[in-house]
Amino acid sequence: MLRKILIANRGEIAVRIIRACTEMGIRSVAIYSEADRFGLHVKKADESYFIGSEPLAGYLNVYALVDLAAATGCDAIHPGYGFLSENAQFARVCKERGIIFIGPEADVIERMGDKTKARQAMIAAGIPVTPGTDGNLENLEQALEAAEKIGYPIMLKATSGGGGRGIRRCDSSAELVKNYDRVISEATKAFGSADVFLEKCVVNPRHIEVQILADSHGNTIHLYERDCSIQRRNQKLIEIAPSPQLEEAQRQYIGGLAVLAAKAVGYTNAGTIEFLLDENDRFYFMEMNTRVQVEHTITETITGVDIVEEQIRIAAGLTLRFKQHEILRRGYAIQFRINAEDPQNDFLPSFGRISRYYAPGGPGVRTDTAIYTGYEIPPFYDSMLAKVIVSAMTWEDVIKRGERSLKDMGLFGIKTTIPYYLEILKHHDFQEANFNTGFIEKYPELVNYSNKLQPAELAKVIAAAMAAHTGL
Are residues 180 and 235 in the same domain? Predict the structure, then answer.
């Protein structure tokens, strides 16, 4: 087993990895920028090291991070998600320096990170993919010609893209002309590559992804699926496991596809195969994420498998502890991404000081976060503050538990997406599990909730009024 791990990340995922290390008896090493000096991951790790005053540079410096891991006697580096988690060069440098990269091999990251290569690999493996170009586009003229053959609407995508960036839907040739240079610019800035391709747009699909685990001894299993259809501008907001929209036959089919896809590319460690499910119940491969997902929590909840711990065990060369028939799911789980955003103001970021915070609790509730009362949210990183995960045996009950938990949560001093999620939970289409990726766009009125006090604040006001009235 590994003895010491450097965590090349920050925030809640760094805290999550530290907790796994603690349970496994592994020492953890945190890193921090000036903006993260008072971060919770810095406080919880066994050791913490300053990586520079710039908010991002230190987290993205491959050689400096590997040097730090070597200097501090680390066996391995866990990249978390975001930052360098899907950077093939990072994995390659780790290997060259004798440091274990907790993730797949560099060539697999490279191959699956290139969407055109990933499509080609899936086609070769017999995995259904959406119609699209065989490779990258050379120019606008080629894009227009391909779009006419495929038929509008189409999706223009950055080949090295991810996280919902570098993607534009085009409903006509005019929109393709308008967006072509824009997507290339976004791709270059975000991913350092100007390569783009296009594929048929599956209109308002359901976004279904499958969690897989694969060791270096040839064993690959899936941990069932997650439904990530509730999203805004390709950014996930609410995730569900398993999907309440699938029948059992579909569930077994897509799980089998995911295992086949992982084996086809020689995948090891934890990964996610993402699919689109169209209105005719046809699945199409979309992409593979070669890292732990933000929403891994709900899969852990319904299966009881600690995915981060399994990542570490696999990286250490151990075999999977579970066979496919031993993976049993139980009930439903929902994850809410609590973002520092104002839904009533076009989701404008709301950074600043958290004046008061307490997490929800009770049966079937989990909160993953790195915030605390008095924490100053830096404006340099993702707006996600916390993940609230709820579980229950039935779909109806998990919705009720989600509502109760969001109302229980106390988070003051900034605007958050909590009131918006409460509106979604009350919507009949969500309650009937009748939704797709167009849900948010279809119901823009959901942001028009009243600015009511949260229950804890309301109770405080009532108590003060009663005290004033009675003279107590």
Answer: no
In a domain? residue 471: no
Question: Would strands 76-78 and 4-7 be described as parallel, antiparallel, or unpaired?
Answer: parallel
Q: Which residue, chain included where needed, has tokens 């008095």?
A: 374
Percent of all residues in the chain with a pLDDT value above 90, rounded to a whole number: 89
Nearest alpha-carbon partner for 243 in 214, 283, 271: 283
416-427 pLDDT per residue, tens: 999 999 999 999
HSE, side-chain direction, 13 A CA sphere, residue 370: 27
Same domain? 53 vs 72: yes
Would you say residue 465 lies in a domain?
A: no
pLDDT digits (tens, 9 = 90+) for 319-365: 999 999 999 999 999 999 999 999 999 999 999 999 999 999 999 99
The pLDDT of 113-126, averaged and rounded, is: 93
Q: Beta strands 341-342 and 269-277: pairing type?
A: unpaired
Q: Please tell me the predicted confidence (pLDDT) of residue 468.
A: 58
CB within 8 Å of 389: residues ≥ 6 apart: 297, 298, 301, 333, 334, 335, 336, 365, 366, 367, 368
Residue whose pair of structure tokens reads 């796994």 in the numeric block: 20
Q: Within this chain, do residues 183 and 222 fall inside the same structural domain, yes or no? A: no
291 is catalytic: yes
**Number of domains within the chain:** 3
Q: Write the CATH number for 74.
A: 3.40.50.20
Catalytic residue chosen out of the listed positions 291, 313, 337, 401:
291
| Phi and psi torsions of 114, nearest 5° | -95, 110
CATH number at residue 165: 3.30.1490.20
Domain that holds residue 30: 4-102
